[in-house]
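Support case: NAI complex. Customer-provided input:
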Amino acid sequence: MIVAAFSTKPYDREFLERAAAGTGIEWRWFESRLEADTARLAEGAQAVNCFVNDDLGAVVLERLDALGVRLVTLRCAGFNQVDLPAAARLGLPVVRVPEYSPHAVAEHAVGLVLMLDRRLHKAFNRVREGNFSLDGLLGSDLHGRTVGVVGTGKIGRCFAEIMLGFGCRILAHDPRPDAALEARGVAYVPLADLLRDSDIVSLHCPLTPATHHLIDASRIKLMKPGAMLVNTSRGGLVDTRAVIAALKTGHIGHLGLDVYEEEADLFFEDKSSEIIGDDVFSRLLTFPNVVVTAHQAFFTRNALEAIASQTVRNLVHFKRGEPLEAVVRA
Ligand code: NAI
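Agent response - structure generated as follows:
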C-alpha cells in the first residue's frame, strides 16, 4: 500500500519507517504541506498521512478523493484541521493518534511555567554574558499558588497531577469532570471563576468552533492582574491581539505559548534568514515576559515512537480490511 506522507521531517521518516518495517507499506515522503496545490502529489497513493498544519478542508479532501485516496491518517491527536462533514460526505475515513504521550505535552507546559516564573530564559543569556546579577529575576514559589486547568482530558489531567505535586491548588474547568482528580482535591468551577481566581491558567481543551478565541478580551478582563497564561493546545484558543493588548497594560503578567493561531506559515521551518512578515507574532517576541516555542510540546522520543506505531497500526488495519481504531467522526 502506498502512503503519501506530507509535512514530513527526517525525524518523522526515521520513526515511521522503523515502525512500518515488514508491513508492506510504501512511503512517499513529502516535505510540503498538504494543501490544494500539493494534493496532486498523492496520486497513486491509497492513503495520506498528515500533521497539524496540513489543510484537510473540503477542497483538498475532494482532490484526494478524486485521485483515489481512500484513507486519511493523522499523526497527531488534534483534528481541527479536518473538515469532518466533507470527509463523511466523501466516505473518506479519518484516523488519528488519540493518545501518544500526554506526559510530553503536560511536561512542556510545566517547563514554560517554570521558565517564565523563574525567568530562566533571561538567566540563561545573562550568565553566558558574564552577568551574574539577580536583578529582574525574582520569581515566586509555585507551592501554594492557584493553577487553573482548562480541559482535564489526557494532557490536562497529567498537567494537573504534576502541579498538585508542586503543592498548587488546582481549579479546573471541563464539561466532563474527572472524578479521580476531584478525589485528589481538584475543584471544578465555571470558567469565569477559574479565570478570576487563578495565578496561572493553562489551556488543554481542543480547538472547536465553540472554543475558538476562548480567551478573548472579555475573558482576559476576568483574569487576575499579572496572571500567567500558558497555551500548549491550539493557537486558535487565544485571541492573540487581545493578549498583546493585555501584555502591554501588564494585565497579563506572563505568556507561554507552544502554539499560535497563524503558526502554519512559521512553525517547523528554519526562518532564521528570512524577514518575518507577521507583525502580530513579531510583537509577541518583543516582550520580556513572553516565551514562545514552535509547537514542540509533543516532541519526545516516546511520543514519536507512539505516534509512529499507532499510525502504522491504523494503516495496517485499513490494508487488511479490519475495523479501524481511532476514527474521527464529525
Ligand atoms: P482530550 O480529548 O483527552 O481532552 C480534552 C478535554 O477538553 C476533554 O476532557 C474535554 O471534555 C475538554 N473540553 C472540551 N471542550 C472544553 C471547553 N470548552 N472547556 C474546557 N474543557 C473542554 O485531549 P488531549 O489529548 O488532552 O489533548 C488536548 C489538546 O492538546 C488537543 O486537542 C490538541 O489540540 C492539543 N495538543 C497539543 C500538542 C502540542 O504539541 N502542543 C500535542 C498534542 C495535543
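The pocket of NAI is lined by residues 77-78, 102, 105, 150-156, 173-176, 204-207, 210-211, 232-234, 258-259, 295, 297-298 (CB under 6 Å).

Case will auto-close in a few days if no follow-up is received.
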